Automatic annotation (TrEMBL):
Protein name per its UniProtKB record: DUF1471 domain-containing protein
InterPro entries per the UniProt record, alphabetical: BhsA/McbA_stress_biofilm_assoc (IPR051096), Dodecin-like (IPR025543), YdgH-like_sf (IPR036275), YdgH/BhsA/McbA-like_dom (IPR010854)
Sorted UniProt keywords: Signal
Residues covered by the YdgH/BhsA/McbA-like domain: 35-91
């Protein structure tokens, strides 16, 4: 019984990781003919690093059931600390 429980927990963990959205680069995004565009995500937030912004885009893509995302723009306008990030998402 203990082995079955461990196997079930391992399967659940692996399946949770399998649903995470995958970041693609511009070339890959242009060549993705077999996917459906779900639109664009825009996030304006006070991120301290670009990797935090990418993590937020990844989380939002996962929340919208996207399989792939392509970060189009990451910029920090002015000196207020807000970083604007946008990404295409695909299923």
């Amino acid at each position: 019984m203990k082995k079955i429980t461990i196997a079930l927990l391992a399967a659940l963990l692996l399946s949770a990781n399998a649903t995470a959205a995958i970041q693609v680069d511009g070339r890959q995004a242009r060549n993705m003919d077999d996917v459906q565009s779900l639109g664009v995500i825009y996030i304006n937030h006070n991120f301290t690093t670009e990797s935090e912004a990418t993590e937020a885009i990844n989380a939002e893509a996962d929340a919208r059931d996207a399989r792939y995302y392509h970060v189009m723009l990451t910029r920090e306008p002015g000196s207020n600390g807000n970083m604007h990030v946008s990404a295409d998402i695909y299923r």
